[in-house]
Please model this.
Amino acid sequence: MGGRIHNAGRYFGITDSRTADSWDFSCAESHKKGGGPMSKKTIVLLAFFLAALPAMVYASFTENSPEFREVTSQLNMDGHSDHDISTCKVRKAYNSEVIEMLNKDMSPEDIIRYYTDELGTGALKVPYKEGSGLLAWLMPAAGLAAGAAIAGLAIKRITNRKAEKDSPTIIEMQLSGGEYSSLEETLDNERKKYF
Model:
């Protein structure tokens, strides 16, 4: 039996100068001291470590965590959100602030709310789709529609004026019989000159 345990120790990377026969696996010495297989102090320390382990894991956010990416994808960062992080100091400062807030157990929604309270809706890349943010979405469309209407009216006026200038004005006059015959004679004479 001692040989199998010794080989298992080598397999799991246990290096000890003692032979497997000298190892004491019976825990008889700890029972003699009254400590049992594990002392109370060891159990308390182990329980504390296991209780603190999830908090340490959850509290350490990085730039690769989904919560961080969720927040930074929505922030404008004073116009620096599209800059390269290796060269932009403003973006580095924002990123470190966001990581710090996440590590202080702030939710992504709380962080977004903090920045919008401090900087207004300009802190976001895309404004909210409700309230005053809705106005920001509708103003470009309203401006485009108003501009198209003004341009259409201007084009219509210009084409109407040009059409009036190009077309001859016909004045209708009532001619008497003698005036009509003299006009016909004059037109015939003019036609004969040119044709």
User: Anything to note?
Assistant: The chain has a mean pLDDT of 75. The radius of gyration is 46 Å. Residues 2-56 form one domain.
